[in-house]
Specification:
The structure is a single chain. The chain is of the alpha+beta class and 242 residues long. The chain has 2 domains: 75 residues; 118 residues, no CATH class. It has 3 helices and 11 strands. The protein is elongated.
Length: 242
Amino acid sequence: MKALAIGRWRFEPKPWPSLAAAVFLLLTLSLGEWQERRAQQKLESQTRIDALAAGPAAVMPAKAIEASEFVQRPIEVRGEFLAENTAFIDNRVYRMRPGYHVITPLRISGGNVYVVVNRGWVAADPRREVLPQVDTPMGEQFLHGVAVIPPKNVYELAPDTASGAVKQHLALDLLGAQWKIALQPVVIEQTSSAVDGLVRDWPRQDAGADTHLAYAFQWNVMAAVVALLWISLNLRKDNAPD
C-alpha cells in the first residue's frame, strides 16, 4: 500500500496485517451493532412489562388460560390451597441466606382447575434433612400476585424424583403429573400478605437490556483498540537530520 507522509511522520500500512485488521473491525462492529439491536428489543420488552405491571389486575378464571394473556400481569384469584401438596424449590438465596421457595397448588373457586402459587421464601434449616414448618391458610383465600412463567432449566445436577417435597426447579408439567391435577400454565408470585412467616420480596422483572448494552460496549471497545493498534503499528517517524 502507498505510504502517506504527514510532516515527519509516514503512515505505511502493510497489506496482510491491514486485511486482518479490517476483517476483525468488521466482525467486532457487526457484533456490537447486533447487541445494540438486541438491547433495543429488550428495552421495548421492558416497557411492555412495566406497563403491564402498572395496569389493573386480571382475575384468574377457573378454566384453562393462554399464558400470553396473563404473564407479567397483576393477578387476583380466589381459591383453596391443597396444603398436602406443598413443595419446596431448593437453592433459593435471599440476602445471602440459603432457603426455599414454598409453592402450593390453589384450586380456583368455581371449577376444577388449579394454579401454582409461589407463596414466598423461607430459610433452610442447618440440617438439610429437616424441612421448614410452614403454615398454610385454610378455607377460601383471596390472593394478589403477579403471573410469571418459570424459567426453563437446560442443565440440572440431578433430575427431580416423581415424589418428595423438595424440588430442584419449578416444572409445571412434572408437578401436574405428580399431583394428578390440571394446572394453569403460569405461576402466581404472591404479593398479598398472609400469616405464614414467608418472605415475599420479589425482584423487579428485568428483560435484560443492560446485559446486551454491556456486550455492545465491549465489542465497540475491542474495535477501537484494534483500529488504534493498526494505526500505531504502521506509523513511522522519519529520522531526518537536524
